[in-house]
Amino acid sequence: MAWLWLAIAIVFEVIATSALRATAGFTRLLPSLLVVLGYGGAFFFLSRTLDSIPVGIAYAVWSGAGIVLISVIAWAMFGQTLDRPALLGMGLIVAGVLTINLFSTSSAH
């Protein structure tokens, strides 16, 4: 169940971060509420994972997946360009998360 909580935390974080631009410096109410509720949900569900997944592993997966997903959303929705070094870096992040999950005994609690 902890991995499901972590996936939900990642979704909340990605939604909140994606909405940050629309807040216009927290001067627009609805996008600002989405950001606050999104981050609140992200940290709530992240905290639920920590009974079963070590904090370092949970945070590595959470932040790594968030970086990649936010970059893809920024590319698709906001026209952010992703050059080769950016794509290489994201590939390394994905490789790191996969390595942790597939080979590390640290994620076994």
TrEMBL record:
Topology versus the membrane: Multi-pass membrane protein
Major localization listed first in the record, in broad terms: membrane
Keywords: Cell membrane, Membrane, Transmembrane, Transmembrane helix, Transport
Gene3D superfamilies associated with the record: 1.10.3730.20
GO annotations of cellular component type: plasma membrane
Annotated localization: Cell membrane
Pfam families: Multi_Drug_Res
Gene Ontology molecular function: any one: antiporter activity
Family listed: Belongs to the drug/metabolite transporter (DMT) superfamily. Small multidrug resistance (SMR) (TC 2.A.7.1) family.
Name the record gives this protein: QacE family quaternary ammonium compound efflux SMR transporter
Organism: Rhodovastum atsumiense
